[in-house]
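Reviewers of the previous submission asked for a worked example of the structure-prediction workflow described in the proposal, so we include one complete record here. The input consisted solely of the amino acid sequence. No template or homolog information was supplied to the procedure at any stage.
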Amino acid sequence: MTNLNDFIFLVIAGPSGSGKTTLADSLVENYPSRFYKVKQVTTREMRDDEKASTYVWMRKRDFKGINHLLFAHTNINGEYYGSIPPTNDKIYKCGIIILNEEGFNNFKKDVLRENYFSIGLNLPFNNLNKREERTQEYVENEYKVLEMCDQVLTPRFGKFVEPVEVIEIMEDYYESIKK
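From that input alone, the workflow returned the following structure tokens.
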């Protein structure tokens, strides 16, 4: 298996519908030489608004057969998720991985602290992009992951976080740990 500590990661966390995927896509689109999205595998159904490139979808029995090859595992509403380790051609880029609390805890077991930076998106509950399968209680529980993040961003005026804001925060962070 790939040594995950040969890579740098940006963890994006927050409640469902807070803009995590939008931010990740925007970072990759605007800074393709710096970022890539870590490919994730899931057993859940594809949503109408998702691209086929977002995840690899598979049946639960197939997922269980490759589970040992994945990292940052989690279970959401009985559906499994895991991340495919990056390949060596990604070694000079930052891998973006979107995680919930359980996935983040599992990620931290596999990746050394100096190899990742984490950003939490704290969008107020009333501004979240609601998903039918998520109850209010479930989503409110998802806010706990923000306590694990290096930096928590609250989008202003209901807008999503700008990619340049993330770049500046990450550069400041890595500059501070070099000293």
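The beta strands are 8-13, 35-37, 40-42, 55-57, 71-76, 79-83, 94-99, 116-121, 151-153. We consider this example representative of the routine output the project will generate in years two and three.
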